[in-house]
What we know:
By secondary structure, this protein is α/β, with parallel strands linked by helices. It has helices at 15-29, 84-101, 111-122, 133-139, 143-153, 164-174, 197-209, 227-234, 254-260, 277-283, 299-305, 324-331, 342-354, 370-381, 385-402, 405-413; strands at 2-6, 33-38, 52-55, 62-65, 75-78, 106-110, 126-130, 158-161, 180-182, 241-245, 267-271, 291-295, 311-314, 336-340, 364-366. The chain has 16 helices and 15 strands.
Amino acid sequence: MRILLWHGYLLDGTGSNVYSRELAKEWSRAGHDVTVVSQEPAPERYAIGSAAPVKVELPDGLLPVFVLDRYEGLEPRLLQDFTADERRRYVDANVATLRQLLPADLVFTNHVLMGGAVGAALGEPFRVKAHGSELEYSMRGRPELEAWGRQALASAEAVYVGSQHIRDVLEDVVGHVDRVVEVPPGVDVDEFVPQDRAEALAELVAEARADRPNPGNAEERRPDEGNAERLAAFLADDKPTVVYFGKLIRNKGVHLLLEALDGLDARAVIVGFGDYRADLELMAAEHRERVLFTGPFEHRHLVHLLPLADAAVVPSIFPEAFGMVAAEAAACGCPPLVARHTGLAEVAAGLEAAYPPHLAHLAAFENGNVGELRSKLAELLELGAADREALRAAARRTVVERWSWAGVAARLLAPVA
């Protein structure tokens, strides 16, 4: 098949960016002719298989976003703050680029807005993936955007959601939508694998040494300067280790993890970027010797960091479409401990079904409950060798059976009734 994969953002850093990159890679592996249309200025840095990258030139450099981050060479602005004329010009620019790439057997777009709007305006059969961030952060409670999304999706061949939660949110925000198909995000189970501790640490440090320079950590989307030496020293022994990786914004609940560290004999590695990082570093000041902030990591780092951790905490306090970070950790044999709500609860349910019964309660904690997070973390970190290995094996097995990218990518191409 010839596939046009449209994604309006970059190919690193956040969920939908990684989703698009991995989808391009998996479809390429399957022998499809894939073109990725995005705003990524350096696609050569990322594994996207044989997919061809194309960058759209945006009118006035305006980029509609759901959470404000910095984009070099662009002016990000919240979608809800765009005028109708600015929205139209953005859609027109993307449609013009896609038209130059036709014909295609499939046009696949990301986000109800702007992906649904771009697909609808193209006038060709298209499928769209609703990620949830657009629905919760920009569209909900804004009638004009809700109506626009509803209109755009009416002409879609299929609308994909990653969980029952997002199916419910979609209907709540835009009303009834036909041809909604639930397909969870995926994990590259050949890339995210368990690894011997000494080997994992050596390869993590090597990857950190290969990072581009970032003097003064001025580029928030790059890993911190000096990570190689800091990681080597911080992870030198086998002290109990907890990892968080994701955006550093308040809604992700990282502050709950920092609070939960009180009274625990454990250290934490905090991976990510965002406007809440400085606040989190202030909160962690009293734990300075056992909390390490690294800036964002790519998959090439994470596949070696996660096998070094005894648990990965996903403490988000805001609705989540799924919980890809939890699945990636589990694929490495690192048991995730997630807040039990929305899409994260569905990940927890999959893990609980596979865990030994006496350990099933260690997959999730009550949303926002620091005390329960602390107690379950303590229990995870104190497991005996046999229970620890049983949990790691069950976590890995669950991802292979439920959330591998090969199966996900194939399902997204299946005929829609």
